[in-house]
Design brief:
279 residues, seven-stranded mixed β-sheet, binds S-adenosylmethionine
């Protein structure tokens, strides 16, 4: 029995259901339930929230989220071997856990949920960034989610919170910080996982802002930022010349020196530049 919920310890769950970790599915499991409860607490008070979890695996973080009081957890898992273990958790928690079997990139879970909605996950590394970008670029803002509490490789976490002038600063920083508060809230060494990955990990907490930090059209901002960082070593007048023949004038009007590189330009200035393309 484990301390947080009276269910069997995760090592036993893994042995019973023969859940040997598969690299192709990004399976690095968290087996310490005190640690998964701590990660769940980084999401804040979940008692009034439906929570989406991508990749519950044997259910370590799932159990943390339920024990910490999430109203409901909707977990999407691609590996069918995990389903019997997850069904035991669902029984124990009177159906507060709903599991959808399939690929999170292809499933729209919203019809099963009632707002407010939070997302919490120890993401599979191969699809983590793609899911984050989707959650950050919905058609409408504010998005369907209130907060994201997500485990990434440390290097990806640093790209999310990066500031101008650093190597990690790029498209992910702009997308994350334009319409959300983003912070690294926990760091985890490889040894926290079974099997241990090659690199360290970190949990990032993002809270959606009601309105963007600076005015800009989302599609235009994304296009400008993608072009600027695609050729991050070039001066902006060269990197962005494909966007408009009078790019130097537009950069100047936005208060950006045409000789600057993308890495040096702050979020507010990128938004000012995007506004130059609205007319
Ligand atoms: N949440 C568990 C934990 O913390 O121990 C497992 C995390 S493990 C890093 C990633 C999980 O995502 C695995 O269970 C894997 O099977 C699942 N997974 C991988 N690709 C997926 C996808 N496209 N959609 C849904 N789940 C996926």
């Amino acid at each position: 029995m484990s301390g947080i919920d009276g269910l069997p310890p995760l090592r036993e769950v893994i042995a019973t259901h023969e859940l040997s970790a598969r690299k192709s599915l990004g399976q690095n499991f968290l087996l310490d339930l005190n640690l998964t409860a701590k990660i769940a607490r980084q999401a804040g008070d979940l008692s009034g929230f439906d929570v989406i979890e991508v990749g519950p695996g044997p259910g370590g973080l799932t159990r943390g989220l339920l024990a910490e009081g999430a109203r409901k957890v909707l977990a999407i898992e691609k590996d069918q071997r995990c389903l019997p273990a997850l069904a035991e958790i669902s029984d124990h928690y009177d159906g507060r856990l709903q599991v959808i079997s399939g690929d999170a990139l292809e499933i729209d879970p919203l019809e099963h949920l009632t707002p407010p909605i939070a997302i919490a996950a120890n993401l599979p590394y191969n699809v983590g960034t793609e899911l984050l970008v989707r959650w950050l670029t919905p058609k409408e803002w504010p998005p369907f989610w209130t907060s994201l509490t997500l485990m990434f490789q440390r290097e990806v976490a640093e790209r999310i919170v990066a500031q101008p002038g650093s190597k990690a600063y790029g498209r992910l920083a702009i997308l994350s910080q334009w319409r959300a508060d983003a912070r690294i809230v926990m760091s985890l060494p490889p040894g926290a996982f079974t099997p241990p990955p090659k690199v360290s990990s970190a949990v990032v907490h993002l809270r959606a802002l009601e309105t963007p930090r600076f005015d800009a059209n989302a599609k235009i901002l994304e296009r400008v930022v993608a072009a600027a960082f695609n050729q991050r070593r070039k001066m902006l007048r060269a990197a962005l010349k494909g966007l408009a023949p009078d790019i130097e004038d537009r950069l100047n009007a936005a208060g950006i020196k045409p000789t600057e590189r993308a890495e040096q330009v702050c979020l507010e200035a990128f938004c000012a530049l995007a506004r130059q393309f609205e007319t």
